Amino acid sequence: MDKKRILITGAAGFLGSHLCDRFIKEGMYVIGMDNLITGSLNNIEHLRSNVDFEFRHHDVTTFVDIPGPLDYVLHFASPASPIDYLKIPIQTLKVGAIGTHNLLGLSKDKNARILVASTSEVYGDPLVHPQTESYYGNVSPVGPRGVYDEAKRFMESITMAYHRFHNLDTRIARIFNTYGPRMRLNDGRVIPAFIGQALRGEDLTVFGDGSQTRSFCYVDDQIEGIYRLLMSDYHYPVNIGNPTEISIRDFAEEIVKLTGSNQKIVYKPLPKDDPQQRRPDISKAKEILQWEPKVDREIGMQRTYEYFKSLPIEELYKKDHRDFADHNKK
User: Fold this and answer.
1) What is d(CA 310, CA 115) in angstroms, rounded to the nearest whole number?
2) Is the pTM of this model over 0.85?
3) What pLDDT, on a 0 to 100 scale, did the predictor assign at position 277?
4) 3-state SS string over 217-267?
């Protein structure tokens, strides 16, 4: 019982499962929680027999009760790709609003420090480049992506309200595009989409003219940044991402070269409210956390490609991760 205890929501997801690994490695007892709408038990199967890990199948938008003490809470439960949050828009709003409220209340009751996973999407389609934490963003609350963007903006607001009003010990991570093993091939984000198309022998689909940019951070770097932020004494939002920027068109060409495929790159109309630029200013993370990414994209992408190649062939052709019909009614 001398181990620190941490609750990680979204534990069966991409980032959540890597966070479980990290905090077990740090000598903590990890309670993983997930409703498995977008997460997969395969991501945490290697932890099921670990004495320092327990899993709870639970939806954080309903009351969350954890017996015993808690030292930390990491709130990472949320759909995180456009395909997911456009299919389950109400659930996306609820997990960012009601789920966050429930976990802030739990943290207050347990006197636990909480870190919430916000996103670069709070900046919307930015008019400032690169994006600093002081930028308020350019977001349409009624656009199709608003269900995710505004859920995360509310998350930040209520977290700061609990910090100011209840003196709760809070942290806010603004996470930029992250990639690596355990991403879902069918989650709609650009890296698994491109690699999945290459592995299936399909042409690579670029939306718009491909001039829009993204900045990709390897998962090991992201987890290190999150860990350092949790252990810091800084309460305001911090960008955690890789400032190395690349256009989607150039990135598609990198994928063709990486996979050794001879697929063409085809162009389709740009989705509504798709951000044109995405690059974090990480000056604050460097100063406060002494953190910056270390893994070059070439190395990280090779590791990611090897992971996707190792998946069963049926994963390549799976269209949907879950039947979202029931959740659309909630």
Assistant:
1) 33
2) yes
3) 80
4) EEHHHHHHHHHHHHCCCCCCEEEECCCCEEEHHHHHHHHHHHHCCCCCEEE
